UniProtKB/TrEMBL annotation:
Residues 156-202 are annotated as: Disordered. Residues 173-189 have a biased composition (Basic and acidic residues). The lineage of its organism: Eukaryota, Fungi, Fungi incertae sedis, Mucoromycota, Glomeromycotina. It comes from the Eukaryota. This is Restriction of telomere capping protein 4.
Length: 202
């Protein structure tokens, strides 16, 4: 297929949003994947591409400007959470207050015995948000609890799009072999950080 350089300030052919001159790797991989198909792009292709380029060029970029962590040491995460054991026990034993704990008890509303529903609520509505809140508070020094809560809420989309287990998580239709092939091809044809993308007929 003949190649065409995506020029500066070019628009997305699907949604007409402007794309950066140097495209992030996720966008390049997906666009090349679509270009190699024998059929016209489906609505799912269009939606996936626009969703990813919006996340990469807007949500992730905005999060980086706000100082959100782009890399998390997940190997240390378990030990950091274990260190919070005493605080969680104090919440359970009502020695210290917790908005999330009180909220979950109101939802559960089963005296003395909480059952499986109560367990799920306590884990999802107390332990998970409380743990995240505590970790963010530790990561960001010199901020208040309210500022920590705001960061946790504001960074939700950023975390979904940036902190993935692997670069290909959002591109479920792209296999590891496809990704490796694209990287090999880009090395042969590109000497710059940006990638020349084949034009897609849509």
């Amino acid at each position: 297929m003949p190649k065409l350089l995506i020029s500066t300030n070019s628009k997305c052919s699907f949604c007409s949003e402007f794309l950066p001159n140097l495209l992030p790797s996720k966008i390049c991989l997906l666009l090349n994947k679509i270009a190699k198909q024998d059929r016209n792009p489906t609505n799912e292709d269009r939606h996936s591409f626009c969703e990813i380029h919006y996340a990469e060029t807007t949500i992730v970029s905005d999060g980086i400007q706000k100082g959100y962590l782009t890399e998390i040491n997940f190997e240390l995460l378990e030990s950091r959470i274990i260190q919070m054991k005493d605080e969680f026990l104090n919440i359970i034993n009502k020695k210290i207050g917790s908005y999330y704990w009180n909220f979950s008890l109101e939802i559960c509303a089963e005296p003395e015995y909480y059952g499986s529903k109560g367990l799920n609520i306590i884990v999802d509505e107390v332990l998970v948000p409380k743990t995240a809140l505590h970790l963010i508070f530790k990561d960001k020094s010199n901020i208040t609890l309210e500022e920590t809560k705001k960061i946790m809420e504001d960074s939700r989309d950023f975390k979904e799009n940036n902190n993935q287990e692997s670069d290909s998580c959002e591109l479920e239709s792209i296999s590891k072999r496809d990704i490796n092939e694209e990287k090999d091809n880009s090395k042969e044809s590109d000497s710059e950080e940006g990638v020349n993308i084949e034009k897609v007929k849509i």
